Amino acid sequence: MACPICDKPTDPTYRPFCSRRCADIDLGKWLSGSYAIPTNSAEDDDDLAEALLDAAKDKPH
């Protein structure tokens, strides 16, 4: 198996990466949002707002 960052052979200590450096690069990509799945955010925001309103209506006061 090759390191997904640099394609070198993996090191069992850092699997699936070859080194701490590549593991940190991957973590940085996750934290910066580089791996985010693109969506139509306007529709997602509308769906979320509708779900929150429905939940608020169902919640006893």
UniProtKB/TrEMBL annotation:
InterPro entries, per the entry: DNA_gyrase_inhibitor_YacG, Znf_NHR/GATA
UniProt remark on cofactor binding: Binds 1 zinc ion.
Pfam families with a match to the protein in the record: YacG
Keywords on record: Metal-binding, Zinc
GO biological process: regulation of DNA-templated transcription
Keyword Zinc: yes
MF (Gene Ontology): DNA topoisomerase type II (double strand cut, ATP-hydrolyzing) inhibitor activity; zinc ion binding
Protein residues bound to Zn(2+): C3, C6, C18, C22
Gene3D superfamilies named in the record: Erythroid Transcription Factor GATA-1, subunit A (3.30.50.10)
Cofactor(s), by name: Zn(2+)
Transmembrane parts of this sequence: none
Superkingdom field: Bacteria
Record note on quaternary structure: Interacts with GyrB.
Family to which this protein belongs: Belongs to the DNA gyrase inhibitor YacG family.
Main function: Inhibits all the catalytic activities of DNA gyrase by preventing its interaction with DNA. Acts by binding directly to the C-terminal domain of GyrB, which probably disrupts DNA binding by the gyrase.
Name of the protein: DNA gyrase inhibitor YacG
Species: Yoonia rhodophyticola
